[in-house]
Amino acid sequence: MIKDLVFKNRSYRRFDQSARIAPETLRELCDLARLSPSGRNAQPLKYILVSSEEMCAKVYPTLSWAGYLKEWDGPEEGERPAAYVVVLGDTAIANNYGIDAGLAIQSLTLGAVEKGLGGCIIQTVRRDDLAKILDIPSQFEILYVVALGKPVEKVVVETLKPDGDIKYWRDAEQTHHVPKRELKDLIVAEK
Ligand SMILES: Cc1cc2nc3c(=O)[nH]c(=O)nc-3n(C[C@H](O)[C@H](O)[C@H](O)COP(=O)(O)O)c2cc1C
């Protein structure tokens, strides 16, 4: 069950934009982030939940998609995310956020997959623009944006080829391929 969820929890970048996500669903996913581990239990992460079509349209241009796919500028109209979770660091609580954001986002995206949704973590964000668009007080640092929606793309995990290239790629059918290193190449020792 967990293997299945982790396997399906790929980075999805093309969605059925018409399948809107209710604010309540975003709150449920955010609650999974809330319950995730936090260094010193400081819980410095805060969230902005974006689900209205109007705000989604404003957030979208601040994001960069799939740097390895040089010919692709990101999802076109109709295939754009139906919601976003902006992950913030609250500087009033902490000035570094350790691995909290990664853990929180993993919980959130696993929850999304369980609901038949999917997402993509976006780190390459025009932060100044996004802060203005969402009117984010300077107390908060924008860490990541998680784009969410009902995926319409097929993503397959495959074993790294002998040349060791880790770049994801798309084939002629637009299937997205994600090379992963083999387990035997990750385990340095078993004692
Ligand atoms: C910290 C982090 C930052 C990322 N930033 C971006 C990004 O800015 N844009 C993007 O399209 N994907 C981004 N991704 C998604 C990665 O490209 C993706 O995780 C990787 O290609 C492996 O694919 P998988 O998630 O399906 O295993 C990011 C992922 C992580 C963990």
What do you see in this structure?
The chain is of the alpha+beta class. The protein has two domains: 2-153, NADH Oxidase; 154-191, putative fmn-dependent nitroreductase like fold, CATH 2.20.180. The chain has helices at 2-8, 23-34, 53-59, 100-114, 127-133, 183-186, and strands at 45-50, 83-90, 118-122, 140-149, 155-159, 169-170, 176-180. The protein has a four-stranded antiparallel β-sheet with strand order 1-2-4-3. Strands 5-7-6 form a three-stranded mixed β-sheet, with no helix packed on it. The longest helix has 15 residues, at 100-114. The mean pLDDT is 98. Bound molecules: flavin mononucleotide. The site of flavin mononucleotide (FMN) has 14 residues, from strand 3.
Brief sketch in words of this structure:
By secondary structure, the chain is an alpha+beta fold. The chain has six helices and seven strands; from the N terminus they run H-H-E-H-E-H-E-H-E-E-E-E-H. Strand 6 and strand 7 form a beta hairpin.
Order of helices and strands: HHEHEHEHEEEEH
- The CA-CA distance between the termini, in Å, is 28 Å
**What is the CATH architecture descriptor of the largest domain?**
3-Layer(aba) Sandwich
Structure class = alpha+beta
Give start-end ranges of low-pLDDT stretches: none
Biggest sheet overview: 4 strands, antiparallel
Q: Which sequence of strands runs across the widest sheet?
A: 1-2-4-3
Tally of domains:
2
Give the cofactors and ligands. Answer: flavin mononucleotide
Approximate strand percentage: 15-25%
Helix content: 25-40%
Shape summary: globular
What is the CATH top level name of the largest domain?
A: Alpha Beta
CATH topology of the largest domain: NADH Oxidase
Alpha plus pi helix count:
6
Tell how many strands the DSSP assignment holds: 7
CATH superfamily of the largest domain: NADH Oxidase
Rounded to an integer, what's the Rg over CA atoms? Answer: 17 Å
In round numbers, the mean pLDDT is 98
